[in-house]
Design a protein that fits this description.
This protein has 307 residues and is α/β, with parallel strands linked by helices. The chain folds into 2 domains: 5-132, 60s Ribosomal Protein L30, Chain: A, CATH 3.30.1330.30; 139-298, SPOUT methyltransferase, trefoil knot domain (Alpha/beta knot), CATH 3.40.1280. The protein contains 12 helices and 13 strands. The protein has helices spanning 49-59, 67-75, 89-92, 94-103, 112-119, 139-143, 158-170, 188-193, 213-219, 236-241, 260-265, 283-293; strands at residues 5-11, 23-32, 61-65, 80-85, 107-110, 127-132, 148-152, 175-178, 203-205, 223-227, 234-235, 247-251, 268-271. The strands form 2 sheets. Strands 9-8-7-12-10-13-11 form a 7-stranded parallel beta sheet. Strands 1-2-5-4-6-3 form a 6-stranded mixed beta sheet. Strand 7 (148-152), helix 7 and strand 8 (175-178) form a beta-alpha-beta unit.
Amino acid sequence: MTDGATTGGSAPANAHAGATASVSLPTGVDWITDPSDPRLADYVSLTDVALRRRTEPERGLYVAESEKVIRRALAAGHRPRSFLMAARWLTDLADVVTQAREDGIPVYAGDHDVIETLTGFHLHRGALAAMQRPVLPPVGELLAGARRVLVLEDIVDHTNVGACFRSAAALGVDAVLVTPRCADPLYRRSVRVSMGTVFQVPWTRIEPWPRGGAEALREHGFTVAAFALTDEAVTLDALAADPPERLALVLGTEGDGLTRHTIAAADLSVRIPMSGGVDSLNVAAACAVALWALRPGGSVPGSAATV
């Protein structure tokens, strides 16, 4: 047994600051008191974006945060490496903990202050899971049966990436393609903002881009629509009035938008009509507006739910 951990039974009262009673642990759950425990390496410095976006893909993992996101990841068939949670979540996630123990997946529990020292932030949502990264499918596999495809070009903010995935899931997008320099959809913040829908919408990296990528879309019968403020751009209303059967919507990075090479490679440019002296929307907002206007058939299956 590694120093600083207790397995099963009760965690000693002096194992966590300010405790007034021991914590009863299910058999096979390790109580963590030492944030430097090497078994917890997957959870170190989760707020260090530069570190995590390099090391997570290298090590073949991503981190799921919150009960809802963890459950969606498991429902999508993703395999956990371990779980880390505050004590109360052992009850809320009792079925997940039981299955993990049966499968031999480590489950760690600890006080909020220990977890915060380890991860770098206060775990408001109570639970984390280190998950194995799934193998991304080939672009052609995703395009084969798709009608609406979203392409995210070089978006650098993980919040925007997550928000775009959430809109894609809600508004009938069949696949999302992310360019080589786009932020990682499986980074913790992306996953959390997407509410776990990044596990729901099929996605992959498209390379090279734009040369080669736009051609691949056209080869599969897609019209490539670049959202850009150009003199030749048609309005979103005009495109929505008579949309192509198979349509790929391309949205660009914050600030600069799409590159001139991407605009040149597209079949048409599209703009969202504005008023009030505003010329553009945040990319996540523009994504939601565009996907709503261009949703297949003008409706979304199961659309009784509201956001």
